[in-house]
Structure formats: structure tokens, C-alpha cells
Please model this.
Amino acid sequence: MKPQGDSAAARQPTRRTIVRGAAALAGMGILAACGQAAGGGSAGAKGLFKEHTVLRYQSYKNPEELAVFQQGVQRWAERVGNVEVQTDIVPQGEYIEKLLVRIAGGDPPDMMEVNDRMSSDFIMRSTLLDLTDRIKRDGKEIDLDDVFPAYRDVLLYKGKRYGIPDYCGPTVMYVNKLFFQQAGQPLPDESWDWDKFLEVGRIITKDTNGDKVPDQFMTTNSLGGSPSWTPLLWWSFGGEMIKGPGPHHPSETEWLLDHPTEITRANAQATDYWGSLIYKHNVIPQPSQKGDFQKMANVATEIAGRWLVPVYKTLDFVQQGYLTMVLPPKGPKGRKVRNSTLNATIPINAKKPDEAWELVKFHTGKEGMSVAVEGQRTNSTRKSVMEAFKKSMLPWESFEVYAKSNELFTQPMPMTYNWTLAEKMVGDGLNVAYTGQKSAAQALKELQAQMDDLMKRGL
Model:
């Protein structure tokens, strides 16, 4: 279950298919693709394809992100020629199950998007092509040393690499200045901790229509119930959710919800705090209340990443100059951030792995990443593209804030197997504590037993 108001929901567009013809790319949303690469040719070389080639790309990008992706592939397609890419969009919540079915049924895409939270499900089921030898062969083009390690190693498992990052978005806090101006409150800054966040949040949150129910709120529930998002909050209190970074086999996964004692205490403290934001102080919309930072614009802040910027820049209050950004608040153990890293991968049984590899190389390389940052879709995964990233800032964006968030994110997110079920279980388990049905300590103890049982089920 996604937390109420989780901005990740914006990443779930409807299914679409993009077809045929480099000349029609811009007007019809057509993605062009790549050429034969058994010999390790340049991803941008003319004449890579001796005959017309069709590739299928699978993603869960929202329409705004997809448009940026198209710009890069169009540039490449016009250069190499004789290519076509058909793109299928599946909502993120259905992505793992549907792609596993397609791969098992012998109908895989040629290239597919896999984020960090999906990594264990795809890698442990042996559904992704090991790219290690290709990366070594084409080392000069790939240039892994140019990729920040926390993003580079997201799909690294037991020495094998299963993907190359094409997106990173360490979290920041986007702020609608209008709410703070109207309340006579200073804008958030780096001095803010979670106590200050609550203090001002109680002033921002109000009933504007006289029905004695708040309809204006401080923030969304983005950190409330997800193994990918909640760690930001818990880490800032000194807590932890899963031991160790990166993908995990279920037999190797150690959940740290109710042990050791020091971590348990921090986890419970963070859980109590977040529950109070929702049900005691109501600065976060409760499930029965409508709150949205974006279209409804009745929420003052949103903790998110740069993937939402293509959406933000279409909004009225943003165009009117009311958006700014800062780092998330600090906790008792300092300021922490989390990140989503997206990766270009090739299914193990892809029909055209060599051709798909050429698309991977361009899309994740310096030129492809430059297009992505220029479209405000992502931070830069590459050191060499940081200057282009800096130049891509919109008036209300802050390169300094993004750069500090990047520095705070030092290793891949810890990711569990059976992600879809695990996320629902964590959301449901924490909600028992948030609503006061059980103490945080008891809820975490029971959730620990549930997660241990889930891991024991194995693959």
C-alpha cells in the first residue's frame, strides 16, 4: 500500500505504445533505437544497423519523464538511422509482476527500466542479463568511474552488474512559499529539525472553510510506510529498517525493526513522531482527507526528488513563482536523505541483447545523461555531467541543495525481495502504530515477525 499522498504515485501513468519511424518521433512520441553491437561498436556511430531494427523498451515513466527520454533517443536515432523503438508503459505498482510474467512467458522487452526497489525481485529470480563482460569490453564508453558509486552499484550483486543507472534523485524538500507568507512564517532552511517542522506545520495547517476539519496541510505522507521512503525518517532518528545496502536474497535479508535495542528505540521514536503528524496534529492529511502538493496545491511541502520537476513546472503556483526547495529537516542523529536510482537493464532472454546494449550505452552515457538533466528529469548520475546539471537549473531550483543531498547519499538503498508484498506489509504494520491501535514497540515487534516469515518463504 502506497502511503497517502506519496509523490511516487506520480510515476504511474497509463499504458501506451510508441511505434515506428524516426521522422515521426517528436509529433507521435516515437522512440528510436539502436544497432547491432556484437563487436562492441560505438553507440553513436552511423550505420550500426545493416537492416531495419525494432526494439521494445519497457518502463513506468510518467508522461513528462517519457517526453524527456524521447528527446535523447531521437537525437541518437537520427544519428545512427534505420531504427525503431516501441515503448510500453506499465504502472509501477504492477510492474514487477507483469514483467516477471512476460519474461517467464518468453515475451520479454529488449530493454527495461528497473529501479532499486525492484532489484532484488528481478536479480534473485535470474531474469536480468549479466552485463559485467559487456561493461568491461566497452569500458571506455561506459566509464563506470565517472558514475557516482552510490548510484553505480545499485544493481551490483556478488560481483556481477545487472544494469547501469540512468536516473538518480536524492531527496530534497520542495516548498510552496505562499503558505509560509500567508502564515507569516519564515521559509524552511538548513537549521530546521523535525521539531521545528512540526512547530511551523501546526501553524500552516488549518481549516479554511469553517467545517472544523483541516483542509490545508504541512506535508504529504511520503515517509509514512515504505521500505524505500521511511528509512529517511528512521535514519535521522538513528534507526534502521534493513541491514546492508543493495539487493538482498531473502536468505540474506536481515530486517532490523525490533532489534538491536538501540535501533528498536530509535525506530519506535520515529514511528511515534510520524504518527503524531498524521493523527494527533493532523499536519499530514489523514486517509479520509484530501491533500495534494501538486494539482490541489493545499499542502505546503513535499519531500521528493527531481523526477517530479517536469510535472512541477506545469503547475500554476510554480509558474507564479511560489516554489522553492531546501534539504529535508534534521533528526536527533542528523540530516539523512534517501534516493531512487533507475537503471537500464536487459532481460536474460531478450531477443536482441546486442542491439539493446547499444541503446543502454547511449541512454546511460554522458550524452544521454546530459539530455536527461537538461530536461530537468534527473540529477546527474555522472561526475562529468555535473556542470550540465548545474546549467539546467530552473529559477526556483538550487544546485547547491541538490549537490548537498547528493553528498549525503553515500551507498545504495537496502532493498528486499518480494518488494510489492513487503511494501504493503510495512505500510499496514506501521499504520497500526500511527492510529494508536498498538504501541510503536508492539507494532514493530509484530511487523518484524511478519517480515522474517516472508523472507523464510524464499524465492
Q: What stands out?
A: The two ends are 22 Å apart (CA to CA). The chain is about 40% helix and 10% strand. Residues 172-338+413-456 form a domain with the D-Maltodextrin-Binding Protein; domain 2 fold (CATH 3.40.190.10). The CA atoms of residues 148 and 381 lie 6 Å apart.
